Amino acid sequence: MWTKENRSRYDRSGLRYESDLTDEEWAEIAPLIPPAKPGGNKRSVNLREVVNGLMYILSTGCQWRAIPKDLAARSTMYDYFERWSWDGTLERIHHALYVKCREQALREASPTAAIIDAQSVKSAEKGGAQIDPRGYDAGKKVKGKKRHVLVDTQGLVLHAIVTAADIQDRDGGAWLLSTRFGRYPFLLKLYADGGYQGPEFRKSVKAVLSQVTVEIVKRSDQVKGFIVLPKRWVVERTLAWLNRCRRLGKDWENLNHKARAFLLMASIRLMVRRLGRA
Question: Is 47 inside a domain boundary?
Answer without folding.
Answer: no
